[in-house]
Amino acid sequence: MSAVKAFCSWSGGKDCTLAFWEAKNQGIEISHLLNMISEDGSRSRSHGIKTEYLKKQSQALGIPIIQPKVSWQGYEVEYKRAIIRLKDQGVEAGVFGDIDFMPHWEWVNRICKECGVKAYLPLWERKREDLLNEFIEEGFETIVINVNEKFLGKEWLGRKIDKKFIEDLKKIIGVDLSGEAGEYHTFVINGPIFKERMELNIECLV
Fold first, then answer.
1. How many structural domains does the chain have?
2. What is the per-residue pLDDT across 28-43, written as a single tens digit (0 to 9) for each?
C-alpha cells in the first residue's frame, strides 16, 4: 500500500515542524509545504518571516514550498485554491501543527473537507511540555524570532528552545509554554528532517 501523500501547513516554526515529523513517522509522505505570504510577496502571513528564508528552509528540507500571495480578506479562498491545485498533483491530506485552539481545528477540518482532502493534526490535545521535550530530544533546533511584549521581554529574542527555556518560561504566570496565544514565534534551523543546518540569525529573518 502506498503512503498517503500530504502537504504540511507551514509557518517555519516548531509546531508545524514537529507535526511534519510525527506525520512522517506515521508513514505519511510530505510532498509540499504550504505557506501563505503577503500580497507584495515579502513576508509570511503567519509570523512575518521573510519569504526568502522560508525558501531556504524548504531547500534545507528538500521539499518544495508553495507560497500563494494573499490578503487577509482573501486568505480562505486562496488557501482552498492552493489545496485544490495540490490535490490535482495527487495530494490526499494536509498536516497541521495545531495543539488545542478549537477555532483552528474547526477551520482546518472544514477547509479540508470542502477541498476533498483529509486533515491530520498529530499534536492535537497533547501536553505542551511533552511536545517541547520531544522537539528537543529528537534533535530539532529553533530560535525565538518574535515575542508579544505583553508577555515576554526582548531578551527572549534569539533564544533557543532547550530545557532551560522551558524551565524559565514556566516561571512566568499566564504564558502558554507553546506560545499558542501568540506569546512567541520560532524558526527552525536544524533537525532530523533537515539535510543541512541553516546558519541564520534572528536579524536576517524578520
1. 2
2. 999 999 999 999 999 9
